[in-house]
Amino acid sequence: MTKSNERKLTIARSMAEAVAQEMRVDPSVFVMGEDIGPLGGVYGNTRGLIEEFGAERIRDTPISETAFIGAAVGAAQDGMRPVVELMFVDFFGVCFDAIYNLMAKNIYFSGGNLKVPMVLMTSTGGGYSDGGQHSQCVYGTFAHLPGMKVVAPSNAYDAKGLMTAAMRDDSPVVYMYHKGLQGMGWLGTEAGATVHVPEESYTVEIGKAKVVRQGKDVTIVSLGMGVHNALKAAKTLEGQGVSAEVVDLVSLVPLDRETIRASVAKTGRLIVVDEDYMSYGVSGEIIASVTEHDISVLKAAPKRVAFPDVPIPFARVMEQYCLPNPDKIVAAWDEMKAA
Amino acid sequence: MAARKTTPKPNVSSEELTQFYRDMLLIRRFEEKAGQLYGMGLIGGFCHLYIGQEAVVVGLEAAAEDGDKRITSYRDHGHMLACGMDPNGVMAELTGREGGYSKGKGGSMHMFSKEKHFYGGHGIVGAQVPLGAGLAFSDKYRDNGRVTFTYFGDGAANQGQVYETFNMAALWKLPVVFVIENNQYAMGTAQQRSTSTPDLHTRGEAFGIPGEVVDGMDVLAVKVAGKTAVGHCRAGKGPYILEIKTYRYRGHSMSDPAKYRTREEVQKMREERDPIEHVRIMLIEGKHASEDDLKAIDKEIKAVVNASAEFAKESPEPALEELWTDIYAEAT
């Protein structure tokens, strides 16, 4: 069913394309990280760049996350536009100071004297038995801390446009891409993430959510991989005569609360799907966005399908038990209806 | 330490020596005034004074060229004054006022001036060191011949990120001078109680970074070492380490009564090694300036500092609307 004018790309390829197109027109853009050069990025998102731009602009680093993320902050403060990769978001533990105390705060601390135009791209998510230090999302951790924008694409179209927007932004943007959407064969991948991507450069607005499926009975809000689970659940529900609307957050910061509220005002019911830990996180924030604003729109108590509050286990059976999936979303609807 | 020698170095002009005196005295008087304002309750938080260390920044600024960059920790007032930032803006930031460099949102530890190539002012021990390498990377990338002075203390020298940065800066031959201001105390912990080997200038050996130790109470020695260091960097040879032995007369911050050292130790440094007195004696003995000349400078500096204090008191408190600006870069 591929149309002749369609140009399907994986998220990995669309990210690399966005970076390449921007690097061609803006000499202040450079890429830095572990194995983003000849190896092409563990998740393929810098593949081909070193061949075109060379080792000066596509810069492999030592395994020294604090040093190179801090260096990116310094370079950005001096007007460069670094795109930096933190290979797994789980590694933020060794370098978070450079991120949340420096990258995120120096515009504010300088009273606007400085800009920090940098992109921190980082892989998230599990589902492939990589253990609890290589499978987390920690969306809420990043989104909680002020001063940095946070985006998480669910498909290759948004991935390219968000990357271009992030590189052109004068503020730091954390770009969280889900490993299971990258189109890497060895990981297993979500086919729905590989979509038509225009060849020319374009932006997707940071801070704007998208209604990716119209419905009238329940709103399912998610991001990244969760959007695909939500769409699959919506299809199942459709077979049961239930019309589900799916909202793709696209950005966590700024959060498009208006689009969420408008959708829930229409459907009266809300399920939030989040691969990050359940408590103190994105799912609670989404629900609060609705209930603080106008609780009267709700016909039922909201539901969450999120990762339980345990470290991510290795054993496949245990990890899969914990991860959100379409069946759990359908079950959440069933509970909501029964209540 | 040995008693000070007062023989003037032959290669310094009267003008330059006088300028050193003026620049160091500005920092000293500014910091004394900041201490007073703190005591009056006009400055909140902690406030880290630079008194005693003035020769370090003044000597290195004399080795810098236009466009060179500097970045430091939270003991930053001296660095800002030495690179030509406006004392009014610095003092008003200390008092958290609208006229401060960061509009009251940064405070003592967080000020910046792109115009003067001053990149902060950072509150986490050692965290500015990777940023300094990044500034140097930016210069190298643009091939503009500029050098970055990245200052940190003997305490920060025990932070892991310093060594990540040493490796990266040496690997990429970044034009960065790592300036270790060794004032001998990491807050209240004397160097011998915190540091396995005392010679911090050798800390770059494992990475192939040359280093030297410098008498930080002698502004001329600092300038000479600074010239060597920037020459190394500008020649494309990569980073250079200067361990500058200095001494802070006050506590780590205004809240620190400095009970971890004796009054006599501080007194001895003040009497025998004071960097400003050192230059004053050179000026007088070398007949570069008369007592009256110096009195005139003292008076002038006092006026500048008093004006900054007045400005810092008179400048309005920030409007609360300001809270919501600069979270992200404003559209230009």
TrEMBL record, chain A:
Residue ranges of the TM segments: none
Keyword GTP-binding set for record: no
Entry-linked InterPro entries: THDP-binding, Transketo_C/PFOR_II, Transketolase-like_Pyr-bd, Transketolase_C
This protein's UniProt keywords: Oxidoreductase, Pyruvate, Thiamine pyrophosphate
Transketolase-like pyrimidine-binding domain location: 9-184
Source superkingdom: Bacteria
Alphabetical list of Pfam families matching this protein: Transket_pyr (PF02779), Transketolase_C (PF02780)
One GO molecular-function entry: oxidoreductase activity
Record bears the keyword Oxidoreductase: yes
Cofactor(s) the protein needs: thiamine diphosphate
Protein name (database record): Pyruvate dehydrogenase E1 component beta subunit
From TrEMBL, chain B:
Name of the encoding gene: pdhA
Pfam family of the protein (one): E1_dh
Organism: Primorskyibacter sedentarius
Span of domain Dehydrogenase E1 component: 23-320
Enzyme Commission identifier(s): 1.2.4.1
Protein name, UniProt field: Pyruvate dehydrogenase E1 component subunit alpha
Cofactors: thiamine diphosphate
Catalysis: reaction(s): N(6)-[(R)-lipoyl]-L-lysyl-[protein] + pyruvate + H(+) = N(6)-[(R)-S(8)-acetyldihydrolipoyl]-L-lysyl-[protein] + CO2
Cited function: The pyruvate dehydrogenase complex catalyzes the overall conversion of pyruvate to acetyl-CoA and CO(2). It contains multiple copies of three enzymatic components: pyruvate dehydrogenase (E1), dihydrolipoamide acetyltransferase (E2) and lipoamide dehydrogenase (E3).
